[in-house]
Design a protein that fits this description.
Two copies of one chain form a homodimer. By secondary structure, chain A is of the alpha+beta class. The first copy, chain A, has three domains: 209 residues, Aldehyde ferredoxin oxidoreductase, N-terminal domain (Aldehyde Ferredoxin Oxidoreductase,  A, domain 1); 188 residues, Aldehyde Ferredoxin Oxidoreductase Protein, subunit A, domain 2 (Orthogonal Bundle), CATH 1.10.569; 132 residues, Orthogonal Bundle (Aldehyde Ferredoxin Oxidoreductase Protein, subunit A, domain 3), CATH 1.10.599. In chain A, 40% of the residues lie in helices and 14% in strands. Chain A has a six-stranded mixed β-sheet with strand order 2-1-6-3-4-5, sandwiched between helices. In chain A, strands 8-7-12-9-10-11 form a six-stranded mixed β-sheet, sandwiched between helices. In chain A, helix 13 runs parallel beside helix 16, helix 14 crosses helix 15 and helix 19 crosses helix 22. The longest helix of chain A is centred in the last third of the chain and has 20 residues. Chains A and B meet through helix 15, helix 16 and helix 22 of A and helix 15, helix 16 and helix 22 of B.
Chain lengths: 587, 587
């Protein structure tokens, strides 16, 4: 297994045998460990000493279902702490097939403002990966929907692509890394935390991979792996949320809009209410029905990457049947819809398309625009105004820079006190005052406000692995801790986090995941090892953050949530600090 | 002694007897203690739960020389930590004469965007202070040079004034509190840390004071006080820096321009060099000579407030003899001059005037503009461009908001890595790579980058209290600690920090300061108590900051100073973290 280092100071690369200590790491475990081991927590995120690390998961590149996740990690320009953001894309499978344990982008050109493309292939005679660098200024300053096809045309239809967009070139805290979807479009994202800006700060615009001739993933115990794979695949196909033509495959993640609205936990108009009167019009069911009407047939969702059997990626089509954008995730739909008081799917889809075009994270964009609307920059509900602001972000105007800096920065620059963020990162689509456990996750995860870090929504709202009262803080610290630790493990396997639904409810699914991992690595971990192994990753992330100046005092909700009661439940965020501190205190 | 509380939620006030625990506090000791005791470190600086506290020093309002300092304190919108910023103004003496130990501005109107004026007088029959509130929207959105005379016209020539400007109305981290100078002009500032924005967030535009009939300061032991006062006054009149027609009285604080340039420690063009080729043209000597030429006579400086015998406040006059601005402090001269590559005193004076007009801190403004020039917003040396940007700050355009947010925020919004700030606050006029002790103060003070918090320049550059090698880090942590603790005490007495020069060099001057304080309070403190008492204040400030999320990891220099050698000495900031940590570790 290789550690592949791209040195952007002089556009050279180096291949190293992965050290023994990294043998059992993958995905988030790998990126967070390498960042912890090699990056000075005090470094400037856009300076020469930050490193951007990509790692496929442990089972990525195998036939394990829904496992084409790439983990990206670095010191975050948005939070100032460690960042891990993962995405589903064939690019992950390419790296895994070339046996690249981690791809590390380091150094920085002496002069800023020029860009390169790294072309990663398998050198068959030498039996190792190979990198060529090409000037890429021609792709800079442009819409990613335009340049992706050019790159595919140049390097062939079978390549996979990681890229950063205009937002990254501007150095925004809100700048994601775009990956290819099933098509030559920039529609899969490691969106959160500004990792695109780290990539651009190194003068790296694209990493194009072609895995032709690559040996593929080495599997230590094929029989065990196959046994696990089957168990997990069966569980996925069985569970109501993940099964074919089930919730996610039919309605996409936006199936959650009506559910959260019903629960009073759908943040509306910059977190001033938990209910949106336009919720039904933007819900996943409306996407399904709208597409059916416009296309004249039922459209089920597609896989973001080969081998995914959940297939939750949707598209939204214009009246003429042409595709406006993919994917209208629940998070994007909420962020650019309910959170802005906008109830038109056409407008929301246009904003999603613009975020993809410019390389912006949709969640951060929506949370930031909510703050801008709070400040009166444009009015709530003004879709044209919101679209104009996203264009300003793309162009890098002063207002675009304020918004590109993310929710926390925009709140400061615009003098707003109702700023829904933790550690500078904007909050996702679940209201902490209405769903207390997810608030604990937002507050305490190393990532800044992040729902995926410990998705307690499963038991608090969805009835997965039991059903808890969303409004009570009781027991939720322990719940968040357990979810955060398990998630860190799942994020390391390379599976999509959506396997959590079946593995939480179906014991054999959980066994299957562990057996897959043991099959690949030759380990003999049990289910009990899962939270322990996840916890070790969290400890490293936490240690990095503490050295970067992010400790307990940053594991807090914004003050307004402690004194502004949220309709319809009229609750404040009443989780005591001691409960927040116990999440990591007892890890 | 009174604690006077203005509740801006309903424009009422309350007088309380100062609690016994506050009896011996004044100035910074009083403001920092009250903020520590009453403000939630996790509150939003511009929200309803922050408090803005004003306190005159212990000897303020007496005949003690150079003692008309007002301390202002709150949670800072710039640093997110505790903030104390003091200024010399007769307004301090008014509060002291009315026996107001602390004036606390708390609460917040339900609706933002309206302003009030608090009119503070002495109610002779009731023998206590009295407050009336008047609507003040007519003064909002305007140049403070225009509204100060209107306020004086309305309330009489003898009033004193505290005010906030347009910068504060915009909610900027760079928004000072302006006080009257000898004239009805907004030219004395509690500039640093955004306290003006806290004032404006509470809907408070002016506090106008009239101390007619007030009883004056109670002095416990008049003989001892007089003895101390004489000793201190003699020392001030004797020391080369503070004596009449000495360094400060002749050339103002800008006498330091040539000295720091010579030492290679004058930060130039956004901290890219320690030498400025235009230094001589903007030096204090040039101000003196320029005024002489334009006025046809030698002009010595004036006192910022009654009773100051140092009299360091200068003015700069246009070719026709009219005054452009006061005061061209060393810090302002540097920030808006050398730091921007600008060598015209007329341009610098115009920028100082604009900062006063809009209510901006000159240091933060210059440090921020340096970052904007680094980003290429305008070129280094482009005075017209810089002036235009200050106007944008006044108008609150998007670019103005980026810059108004201060050095740290602007660095993030503009994607710059060479950002000279600590805890978000822009660095003052001494290069840490050329003067290591002051760098330790910048890094470790509770205030964010601040030279006044522990002015080690005295021994490192000026030969006051010995002469040390500026370039060596050896012994500087202990030096900074001693200066920081002593400074916290001086900031509590109400004396101008410039008494530090004579009291460091002349033992009887130091004795005099302590005797003055003992005379007022009836205490029997000795010189040995000074660092202990100062240290107690620092400990409270430190505890507040830790609870606000600002700890050891924030006591650091920006990364670029650790890898970019600074001409002409070509040194990096080589103070080890352990030395930085020892400053507070051994307090």
């Amino acid at each position: 297994m290789w550690i592949l280092r791209l040195n952007m100071a002089d556009r050279t690369y180096r291949l190293e045998e992965a050290p023994a200590a990294y043998t059992r790491l993958g995905g988030r475990g790998m990126t967070s460990t390498l960042v912890y081991d090699e990056v000075d927590p005090q470094c400037h995120p856009l300076g020469p000493n930050n490193k951007l690390v990509f790692a496929p998961g442990i089972v990525t590149g195998t036939t394990a279902p829904s496992s084409a996740r790439i983990s990206a990690g670095a010191k975050s320009p948005l939070t100032g702490g460690i960042k891990e953001s993962n995405a589903g894309t064939s690019w992950a499978q390419h790296l895994a097939a070339m046996r690249i344990k981690a791809l590390v982008v380091e150094g920085q050109p002496a002069e800023q403002g020029h860009y390169w493309l790294a072309y990663l292939t398998w050198d068959v005679p030498a039996a190792r990966p190979k990198v060529e660098f090409f000037p890429a200024d021609e792709y800079a300053g442009r819409d990613l929907y335009q340049v992706f096809p050019e790159v595919y045309k140049r390097f062939g239809a079978k390549v996979a692509v990681a890229a950063c967009g205009l937002a990254a070139e501007h150095g925004y805290g809100n700048a994601g890394i775009a990956f290819n979807d099933r098509k030559d479009a920039p529609t899969r994202y490691s969106g959160r935390g500004g990792l695109g800006a780290v990539m651009a700060s190194k003068g790296l615009k694209f990493i194009v991979s072609d895995n032709a001739g690559a040996p593929g993933v080495e599997v230590a115990n094929k029989a065990l792996f196959d046994q696990g794979r089957k168990k997990l695949a069966e569980a996925i196909r069985e569970h109501a949320i993940t099964k074919p033509q089930g919730g996610l495959n039919s309605y996409g993640t936006a199936v959650l809009i009506n559910i959260l609205n019903e629960a009073g936990g759908l943040p509306t108009r910059n977190f001033s209410s938990g209910r949106f009167e336009g919720a039904a019009r933007i819900a996943g069911e409306s996407i399904f029905e709208g597409n059916k009407q416009r296309l004249g047939k039922e459209l089920y969702n597609h896989a973001c990457s080969p081998g995914c059997i959940i297939q939750c990626s949707n598209t939204w089509h214009a009246a003429d049947g042409s595709e406006i954008a993919s994917c209208i995730e629940y998070e994007s739909d909420w962020a650019l819809g309910a959170n802005l008081g906008i109830d038109s799917l056409d407008d929301i889809a246009e904003m999603v398309r613009l975020c993809n075009a410019y390389g912006l994270d949709t969640i951060e964009t929506g949370a930031t625009l909510g703050v801008a609307m709070q400040a009166g920059v444009v009015a709530f509900g003004d879709a044209k105004g919101a679209i104009g602001l996203i264009h300003e972000m793309g162009r890098g105007t002063p207002m675009g820079r304020i918004l590109g800096g993310g929710t926390g920065l925009a709140g400061k620059a615009l003098g707003v006190t109702r700023v829904p963020e933790v550690k500078g990162q904007g909050m996702p689509a679940y209201e902490p005052r209405a769903v207390k456990g997810i608030g604990i996750t937002y507050a305490t995860t190393t990532m800044g406000a992040d729902h995926t870090a410990g998705y307690t929504i499963a038991p608090e709202i969805l009835g997965v692995s039991g059903k808890l009262d969303a409004l009570t803080p009781e027991g939720k610290a322990a719940l968040s801790r357990a979810f955060q630790a398990t998630t860190a493990f799942i994020d390391s396997t390379g599976h999509c986090l959506f396997i959590a639904f079946p593995i939480l409810d179906i014991a054999s699914g959980f066994e299957g995941m562990v057996e897959e991992v043991n099959g690949v690595l030759g380990t003999s971990w049990t289910g009990d090892d899962v939270p322990r192994l996840g916890g070790e990753i969290l400890k490293k992330e936490r240690a990095f953050n503490e050295a970067a100046g992010i400790g307990k005092a940053q594991d807090r909700m914004p003050e307004f949530m402690r004194y502004e009661p949220l309709p319809p439940h009229n609750q404040v965020f009443d989780v005591p600090d001691s409960a927040l501190d116990s999440v990591f205190g007892e890890l």
